[in-house]
Each structure stands twice: as structure tokens, then as C-alpha cells.
Design a protein that fits this description.
Elements: E1 5-13, E2 17-19, H1 32-43, E3 45-51, H2 52-59, H3 73-84, E4 87-90, E5 101-104, H4 108-118, E6 122-126, H5 128-136, E7 142-148, E8 156-157, E9 168-175, E10 181-187
Helix pairs in contact: 1-3
């Protein structure tokens, strides 16, 4: 069996922040075209890995987002995809997770290495701190920065606490009507 591809995609400002101060992500509101693209990314995953904070954020909205009156088709679709995709949540503080999520309290790198060996296809990574730790451990295969035409000046970096240089190879670029540009890279040597 071939190891799964571990993939991290996130929305980011031009100056490299995925959150503004105070964990503000209000500037990342995707239009229908971008949302459809992100739905396809989520649909292609066999499994999603989450850090605690992003899991809590997603869990607070997506399980019932498709029930909101007037919810756009792409939101309805993403909510269904999100509910159906199996999840592993890494946290030492969460008490429990819901639905088809599994909570892991141990070493994330060790558990993810095992999951990669046992899974085919794509595994999505959600959460900047989790993604950075998996990149440091040599487990992350691909990264995609969905760059919004905004400068935040401060916030949470795309890959916090990363101290070593990581060489990347360009895979693809896509420009959306909204001015958002998605740039995908593969970790060199993978």
C-alpha cells in the first residue's frame, strides 16, 4: 500500500497570516467560485486531521450550516461533506469530540505517521500549529496557500513555530475572479 498524501491548505493574507489578531477570520469569506473549489478539496479527502482550535470552530458551525434558511448551495454542500468526512482531532484539553471524529491525546507525529501508512489517498490537515508540527516531523507532503488580496499586519502565521527552511516545488496556481490566488506546493523530496 502506498502512503497517503498529507495535505495542508489554508486561507492566508498576502503578508502570510491565516488569522488576524484575536483569531479573526472574518476576512476569509469565500465567494461561490472559491467555496466550490474548497468543497472539491474537502471531498477528495479520505480523512481530515484537526488541531483543537480549528476543530472547535468548525464543529460550532458546519454540522447544521445546511439547515440555515437561505443557505447557499455551496454551503449546504460543504456542510454535508464535512459531516461525512472522518476526522481525527489532536488535543490534550478537549473532553470529547462528536460525530465521526476520534480524539487523540498522544503524540501527533507518531499517530499521523501510523495513519499515513494505513490510509490511501489524501488526508487533509486543519490547523496551523498541527500543520507546522507535521512539517517539522517530515510528514507533510503538500501545502496550498489560498492567498486573499488583503494585508493584516499581524496575527497567526501560515506555519507558526517553524524554524527550519523547507524547500518546496510548485505544483499549481489558480486565480479566482475575486482576486484570490491559490498556490500549491509539494515538499521537495516527496
Amino acid at each position: 500500500m502506498t502512503n497517503a498524501t498529507l495535505f495542508y491548505a489554508t486561507q492566508v493574507s498576502l503578508d502570510g497570516y491565516m488569522e488576524a489578531p484575536g483569531h479573526d477570520i472574518g476576512w476569509t469569506e469565500p465567494d461561490a467560485e472559491l467555496h466550490a473549489y474548497m468543497n472539491e478539496m474537502e471531498r477528495s479527502a479520505q480523512l481530515s486531521l484537526f488541531g483543537r482550535r480549528l476543530y472547535e470552530l468548525m464543529e460550532s458551525f458546519w454540522p447544521s450550516a445546511d439547515e440555515a434558511p437561505g443557505a447557499p448551495d455551496e454551503v449546504v454542500e460543504f456542510a454535508r461533506i464535512w459531516r461525512e468526512t472522518p476526522k481525527v482531532v489532536f488535543s490534550s484539553t478537549l473532553e470529547r469530540v462528536t460525530g465521526n471524529a476520534r480524539l487523540v491525546r498522544g503524540d501527533a507525529a507518531e499517530e499521523v505517521a501510523k495513519i499515513k501508512r494505513e490510509t490511501k489517498g489524501t488526508i487533509n490537515v486543519g490547523g496551523a500549529h498541527l500543520a507546522a508540527s507535521l512539517l517539522r516531523a517530515g510528514l507533510l507532503d503538500e501545502l496550498e496557500a489560498i492567498v486573499y488580496p488583503v494585508v493584516l499586519g499581524a496575527g497567526t502565521p501560515l506555519l507558526p513555530e517553524l524554524t527550519d527552511r523547507v524547500k518546496l516545488r510548485h505544483v499549481a496556481t489558480r486565480t479566482f475572479e475575486s482576486g484570490v490566488v491559490s498556490v500549491r506546493y509539494r515538499v521537495d523530496g516527496r
